What we know:
By secondary structure, the protein is mainly α. Helices cover 86% and strands 0% of the residues.
Amino acid sequence: MFTITIDVLVTILHEKYESLVEQEDQLxxxxxxxxxxxxxxxxxxxxxxxxxxxxxxxxxIDKIHEYTEELRLDLLYVRLEKxxxxxxxxxxxx
Length: 94
């Protein structure tokens, strides 16, 4: 039978929490990047309106939007798990 001490459990939870913080930071950086690329597409479309094929630009921005939505969903899951781990840590603090 395997038993785990409270100290080991707290250490595992802290490590998991830190990992989730790093994941959250990376996802936020990725979301800022997609926003920057969206803005770049708007700027290029504005500056080169006569040369831009709008349906192609729409397909490009649509793919960026799809990826952005994937990142946002991943961020929600990470934040949910982070909240759960923080709650578990709170339960172990006595």
